[in-house]
Amino acid sequence: MNSRSTKTLSSKDERILNALGIELLSTSAQANVSRVQALLNGHAPAWFQDQTTGWGALHFAIAGDEAGAPWNAVDELGNSPGDVAISLNDQECYELIRDAGLRSEFTLHAIQSKTSLTALRAEDSTPAGSTDEFLKSKLVYRTDENGQEVVVIDIGGEEVGVMMGWEKPIMDATVRALCPKGISIGGRGPTILNVGFGLGIIDSLFQSLNPPPSRHVIIEPHPDVLAHMRSTGWFDKPGVEVLEGKWQEFVKADRIGELIGEQGGFDVIYTDTFSEGYNGMG
């Protein structure tokens, strides 16, 4: 049983919760909505997960998370309720879970902006929470065990991915959404600003547009990334401008002209920086 409570339970209480949790999973699998609701009203643990598979109520029922079951819990194979819904080709259930996740994340962001949680994160002096520490850290470009290129950083003796090759499908969908069928304005390609190069996945996708970008600006501050960009020819690509430094430096009054150029702005702006949250974008 996966207990989320810090309160010490008696063996009797633990047996009761375990029995309620097992019944909740079984009832969820049977789609017995009225019984599921009765169990939840009777304080059955919505967070309960099967000990063997790691599946929770949402994995079995692919239902909403209003009762408190986490929308993004994963089983022992790393599958979320949304993954289960997609595997069953159940678009309606998938969208319910997706929307619940969006509500949860937006609510969490709103709460953090008004509580000390933001202050706690601001005190994180590791590369994961501090831009200055990140820029002083060593980045390593390598190929993982699956043959995909990754960029990793050492944080407290643990390798943390800065950019991973598996993100390419996400980036591809992003480019298609931002540039449907390419963007041609007066016969020219779009003007594009990207903040944060990483593996260069999204920049390569932008470059593959037809027509290609008429101006493609990349802002990148990390010296290891800049060295990688030089070695892979990004500084020599036609139409590509690499601005070395933090994006905050280029929105100041004395440098904004360098950023926006003669065209006065960008058709597409994309940002995916490391160790920065939404609060840092203000």
From TrEMBL:
<dbReference type="InterPro" id="IPR051038">
    <property type="entry name" value="RMT2/GAMT_Mtase"/>
</dbReference>
<protein>
    <recommendedName>
        <fullName>Arginine N-methyltransferase 2</fullName>
    </recommendedName>
</protein>
<dbReference type="InterPro" id="IPR029063">
    <property type="entry name" value="SAM-dependent_MTases_sf"/>
</dbReference>
<dbReference type="InterPro" id="IPR036770">
    <property type="entry name" value="Ankyrin_rpt-contain_sf"/>
</dbReference>
<dbReference type="GO" id="GO:0005634">
    <property type="term" value="C:nucleus"/>
</dbReference>
<dbReference type="GO" id="GO:0005737">
    <property type="term" value="C:cytoplasm"/>
</dbReference>
<dbReference type="GO" id="GO:0019702">
    <property type="term" value="F:protein arginine N5-methyltransferase activity"/>
</dbReference>
